[in-house]
Design goal:
Length: about 300
């Protein structure tokens, strides 16, 4: 009964099922692993990263990545230019960051967010930076871009204000060589509120994480669907064979040829008869009274 499984048609079905099911299971497991990695990364990013590990020299933590973002970095130098970063929210309130450039001993300049103040950006309210050489410790952050949440990327800010924190925004404002990173001081000073470090991008339970979880379910559903269709086709084939063996399968009637419609054949002139003879014969036949008289009418001949 099961010899049909060895037919070419079923060979194709079996090979497809054998290859498709493991592939779907592998892809589903891989997507599930991606989701679990994002959960672990989110847990690490939301933990108390600045106080979890000892501070390290700034240069040893660069470039900023998922592991070094939020780490405490130490750097020495002298404060220089100061900017205000408006429209930044903290604890549900609107305010501005006080950002001061630190010219480090290594020659490059590092943006340092010294704190946050509520209200509209006002240079008169921002405390002046300490004079002389200082040692700064702050949580390391990756440069912002136009897609970072909370940035003012539309431009049109007054002089002395900065919408996006990063070397790309500062390169046209100051003549210094800049670090492609910034730090936020975690100790409040001069009445300013410390700005907490933010988690690195692409590490939270965002839409991408739940997309991975959705893809996991899709691949497992595909795998189950392939098995379901194989079983369904198998059962239908077995039922058809059993019906045929029991004589329950009625063959479809063969189509009968449809006879062509019978049409009277037109009389054709005999071979060898010319067109003139045919025409004369027709004319003479039509010209006789017998031919002209209707059927059944008497014909009177002149004496």
């Amino acid at each position: 009964m099961h010899r049909f499984l060895l037919t070419p048609r079923w060979w194709g079905i079996n090979v497809f099922a054998v290859l498709a099911v493991p592939f779907c299971l592998f892809m589903g497991t891989w997507q599930l692993g991606r989701f679990e990695d994002r959960v672990d990364t989110h847990r690490e990013a939301t933990s108390e990263r600045p106080g979890a590990e000892a501070a390290a020299p700034l240069d040893s933590l660069l470039p900023v990545d998922k592991k070094t973002s939020g780490r405490l970095a130490t750097v020495s130098g002298e404060y220089a230019d100061q900017f205000l970063v408006p429209e930044r929210r903290l604890d549900g309130k609107s305010g501005f960051y006080v950002l001061t450039l630190l010219r480090t001993d290594g020659g490059r300049t590092l943006p340092v967010v010294r704190g946050w103040l509520p209200g509209a950006a006002d240079a008169g309210r921002a405390p002046a930076p300490p004079a002389g050489r200082v040692e700064v410790t702050g949580a390391l952050q990756a440069p912002e871009n136009a897609g970072t949440e909370g940035v003012h990327a539309s431009g049109g800010l007054p002089a002395g204000q900065l919408g996006v924190i990063g070397a790309a925004s500062l390169v046209n404002l100051v003549p210094y060589e800049l670090y492609d990173a910034w730090v936020t001081v975690q100790a409040g000073a001069d009445g300013m509120t410390p700005v907490p470090a933010v988690a690195p991008s692409d590490t939270g339970l965002d839409l991408k994480a739940f997309q991975n979880l959705g893809y996991t379910g899709e691949w497992f559903v595909f795998s189950a669907f392939v098995l379901f269709m194989w079983v369904r086709l198998y059962r239908r084939e077995v039922e058809a064979i059993r019906d045929a063996e029991a004589g329950l399968a009625v063959p479809a009637p063969a189509a009968q040829p449809v006879p062509a419609a019978e049409t009277p054949e037109a009389e054709t002139p005999e071979a060898g008869t010319s067109e003139a003879e045919t025409s004369e014969a027709g004319t003479s036949a039509a010209g006789t009274p017998e031919a002209a008289a209707p059927a059944g009418a008497a014909v009177t001949r002149p004496e």
